[in-house]
Amino acid sequence: MSTARFDDFTTVDWVDDGAKEHQRQQKKQRHASRGIYEASVSWGVVVAVGALIGINTAMISIVTEWLSDLKLGVCRGAWWLNEEFCCWQQEQQNNSSCDQWATWDQLLVGTHVGVVRWAAFVAIGTGVAAACAWLVREYAPMAAGSGLPEIKATLSGYAVRGFLGGWTLAMKSVGLAMAVASGLSVGKEGPAVHMGCCVGNVVSRNFAKYRESAARRREIVSASAAAGVAVAFGAPIGGVLFSLEDLSSRFPRKTLWRSFLCALVATVSLQAMNPFRTGKLVMFQASYDRDWHFFEILFFVIIGVFGGVYGGLCIRLNLRVAALRKQHGATVGAVREVAGLALATTAVTYANQFTRKDMGELLGGLLQECRPASADRLCAPAQAPAVAWALLWATAIRSIGTVLAYGCKVPCGIFVPSMAIGASFGRMLGTLVQMAHRAHPKWSLFAHCAPDTPCITPATYAFLGAAAAMSGVTKVTVAVVVIMYELTGAINFIVPTMLVVMVAKVVGDLFIAGGISEQLMLLNGLPFAEEPDDQPELLGKSVVALMHTDIHALPAGPLPPAQLQAVLDASASAGIRGFPVVDNLHDMRLVGYVSRTSLTAELASLSSSAPTTRVMLGGSLTPSALSDDIAFDVSSASVVSLAHVVNTSPVTVRPRTSAETAADIFRKLGPRIILVTSEDAGQLVGLLTRKDLLKYVRSSHSIDS
Q: Measured at the alpha carbon of residue 277, what is the angle toward residues 271 and 283, in degrees to the nearest 5?
C-alpha cells in the first residue's frame, strides 16, 4: 500500500469548519432576509448544477456518436452528421439503403474494399486517441483516468487543488468524447461522475456560502456525483444510491434531498436534449415482456460466478498494469502508450461484429429482445452457433482491452466496458441455452416451458450479465440492482438481478477485497478516511507510538509581528497549516491551536503597525507570559490581541490513549489534527494528524503483506 500522493492532498478540518459554520448560522439568524436568500441559493445552485450536467452529457453523447461513426464513413454534404442522423429520412421511409452515407473505401477508391475500410478505421481511431492523450497531457493532466478514486478521497475530507476546476472540466469533456469514440475499451460513465463534480464545484464556488464552507462544498459535490451517475445510466434513483453506497463517506438527509433533486433535474435536462433522437436517455435502455422460469436460476448463478471471476481478475490484472505504468510510464510516454493501445485495439476489434461497434450501441443490441421477423443476426436460429462463438471472442477481446486501457492517460471509465463484457457473456450463455431448448424441447429441464412460445430469452441473460460484471468490478450491490431496474423497468427480474449481483460480489471478494476504485486508491497512495473499523494494525498501539514530537509551537506572546511572520515563512515549505499555541516555549502548557490562514490574514492587517507593536495569541500580559529572549518596555508597547483566532478547545488526548480511539475521533469528529498533552500538567508533548494515522496503517499493512 502506497502513501505516495498523500502530500498532494490537503486535509479538511471538519471540526474547525463546523465551528465556522455555526458562527455563520448565528449571523444568519439575526437577519431573516439573509436566511431566505441563502435557502434560495442552496436550491438554485442544485437546480443549475443538475441542468448543466444534463446539457454537458447530451453534448458529449452527440460528439461521441459522430466521432465514433467517423471511423466508418462520412455523410455526403453534411459531414457533421453521424450515420443515424444522416440516414434519418431514409429510415423514416423504410428504405434499407442510404445513399447519403459513404464509407471510406467508397470515398477513397470508389468501390467496396475491406482493407481500405479497416485501414481508415484503425488510422482514425489511433489518431483520435493520440490527440486526446496529447490534449490531456498538455492542458489538464488531472482529467486523465476515471476520477472516481480522487472523488472518494475528496468526499472523505481530502482536497487537491485543480482537480474539480473549470479547466479540468473542459478537457475532461472534450477528451472523454475522443477517448470513447477512438475505439479504446473505455467508457464514459465513470468520468461522467468526475465531470458532474466539476460542474458542482465550478458553479457553487461563486457563492460565499459554498466557497467558505467545506461541508457545504461536500454536500454539493455529493449531489453532483449522484447526478453524474444518473445521466450516465438514465437512472436518477440509482445515481443517488450509488453516491450513497460507493462515493460519499457522509450522507445526511439534507444531502439526500439535494442529490435527489440534482439527479432529477439532470435527467430531465438530458431527456429534453434527446441526444439520440429516440426518446431514450442512454443507448442501451431496453424493456422485457417475458418472464423467467425457476430452472433458469442455475444459469443465473453461472452468470453471477462469471461476474465475480471477471471482476476479481480484472482488478488484479489492472493493478499489475497500473504498477507497470508507474514504473515505465516516463520511458514509454503517455501519448505513445495510448496510441499503441488504440492501434492494437482498433486493428483487432474491427474483425468482430460485436467489438467493432461503440460499446453503448453494442449494449443496446445485446439487451434487446428478439421480435418476430427480426432481421438481426442475433435473432436468426441458423446463425446461433456462429453468434455464440463471436460473442465468446468479443468477451475475451474486450476483457483484455479493458484491463490494458483502464487507467491510461485519457479520460476513461470501466462501468460500460464491464457491462458490455458481462452482456456478451450473458447473451452467449442465453444463446446456448436457447439452442439446447430448440434441439431438445422435451428435456425435463425445460418441462415448465409452455409449448409454441419462446421459453428462453437471451437478452435477459445479457441484462443479468451486465449487472453481474458491473457489480463484480465495483463491488456495488444495491445501486447496481436499482440502476438495472431503471434501465429496463423489468420489475419481474429484480430477484434474478439481486441473485447475480450477490453471487458476483461474494465470488469477487474471494479474489480481492474492495472494488477497483479502492484498490487504485491504495496503489496510487491516495488518502481515504473510510478505513475499516477493525484495523488490526492499530491493536495494542497507543498514540505515543504514532505521534510527532518535533512540534512547531508558538508562544502565546507577546511577539513582534515580524518575528511571527518569519516563523510562518520558515515553516511554509514544510506544509505546516497550523500551530499549537503554548504559554511559553519552556513549559509548553497548551493554550490552543491557530491555523496558518487565520494568522496570515491577521498579520497582513498589521503590516503598517508601529515597530513597538506586539502580538498576543492568548492569555494576559504577565511576566510568566514573556519569553526569555523577548524584552521590551510594556508601557511604550502597543499590544494587539489575536486570541479571537485561536481555538482554545482543540481536540486533545493523552499519550496512553489507544490508537483505535484516535482513529474513532478522526472518523467521527473529523479533526485534521489531534494534540497530545501530558497526563498531569497539560504540557504539549506531541501531535497526530489524520494522514499520520493512515500512513502508519498502510505502511504496517505493506510490511505484513
A: 75
Q: Is 546 in contact with 696 (CB distance < 8 Å)?
A: yes
Q: Give tens-digit pLDDT for 137-176.
A: 999 889 998 889 889 888 888 888 888 989 999 999 999 9
Residue 448 cell numbers, joined: 415448465
Cell 440502476 -> residue: 483
The rounded distance, in Å, linking the Cα atoms of 648 and 590 is: 9
Nearest to 308 by CA among 467, 468, 498, 423: 468
Give the Cβ contact number of residue 541 at 10 Å.
17
Q: Which pLDDT tens digit goes with each residue over 602-626?
A: 888 877 666 777 888 876 545 544 4
Residue 562's Cβ-side half-sphere holds a number of Cα atoms within 13 Å equal to 6
Any bridge partners for residue 675, and if so which? 652, 687
Contact 129, 178 (CB under 8 A): yes
The 10 Å CB-count burial string (b at 16+, else e) for 107-142 is eeeeeeeeebbbbbbbebbbbbbbbbbbbbbeebeb
CA–CA gap between residue 53 and residue 236 (Å, rounded):
13
Q: Select from 361, 360, 374 the least CA-distant residue to 413.
A: 360
How far apart are the C-alpha atoms of 469 and 504, rounded to whole Å? Answer: 7
Q: Are 507 and 309 in contact (CB under 8 A)?
A: yes
DSSP letters for 163-195 = TTSHHHHHHHHHHHHHHHHTT-S-BSHHHHHHH
Q: What is the DSSP pairing of strand 673-677 with strand 652-653?
A: parallel
